[in-house]
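A student in our group prepared the protein record below, which I am reviewing. I have pasted the whole thing underneath without changing anything:
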Amino acid sequence: MDAVIELWTALPVVIQIMIKIVTIMLPLMILVAYYTYAERKIIGYMQVRMGPNRVGFFGMRLWGLGQPIADAVKLMFKEIVVPSGANKLLFLIAPMLSIGPALAAWAVFPFNAGLVLADVNAGLLYILAMTSLGVYGVIIAGWASNSKYAFLGAMRSAAQIVSYEIAMGFALVGVLVAAGSLNLGDIVAAQQGSVFHWFWLPLMPLFLIYFISGVAETNRAPFDVAEGESEIVAGFHVEYSGMTFAVFFLAEYANMILISALSALMFLGGWLSPLPEAWVDGVFLLDHGFHWLLIKTFFFMFLFLWFRATFPRYRYDQIMRLGWKVFIPITIVWIVVVAVMKVTAMPWWFN
């Protein structure tokens, strides 16, 4: 009886948490869907093409705004084909292992001062743990498919993800040293002031390495060797179809949005205004708020698309050399530099 009473008293809290989760996940899924639309439109304009221009709403057919919904409906009704000889259980689990961590990482992400689902002190460690789990989905997908092409793509992709994950981790260690906290809200609070107080300036090498490593970790151009169609037939998910393929597709774009949001949070002050405190206090739209985080995140999301439209694909040996022989040594050296700046209270970031 006591257990039933405890469950009944905890029910409102559970419902409240579920509402918060839906409030985060629903806009995120819509943003992921229309990120694919934005990619096709923006790269189309860059390459003098039309992009989606046949499916739309309310007479705006030429804008193609209904294309993501049409794609989702099409993938929902396509047959999921499991290859003969494949490990069916692992084959179906792999997509969930890819998208799960990309969504779970948002649990500790602060959208504004005090506006966070779980305000944990070790939020940075949680983010590192979640973003590191995605590689398991890639490896399992390649192995469970029982295809040498999928397995080859999985091995190349996994080696690339692990290599750049180390550089990303070291870059975030620099942020930890600079902010003196693992809490994401405290990291943003440590950047109070103006655009020149944000961490992008003292941590510039770590900032660049973190974002470039994020591009590589998400297997995006120019680091998309896992999906070099001319080489290995679309990579680790070559045997996937229907909604299983769609989940891998969504996981890639969800990770891109996550990396963009984290870059804005760690190095560009998150929801903080770029203007000095005395100018923005209480001024509508100029004051600190979620809209600044959104603008900064959209900027990094645009860079992902710009890179794809601009740069040719790297060779695999060039990618591995960049990760191991360039990025990792630079991050280690700059962590020491940041530690010295922190100890000496170098104005004006760490005084």
User: Anything to note?
Assistant: The chain is about 65% helix and 0% strand. The chain has a mean pLDDT of 88. Residues 264 and 295 are 9 Å apart (CA to CA). The longest helix spans residues 2-46.
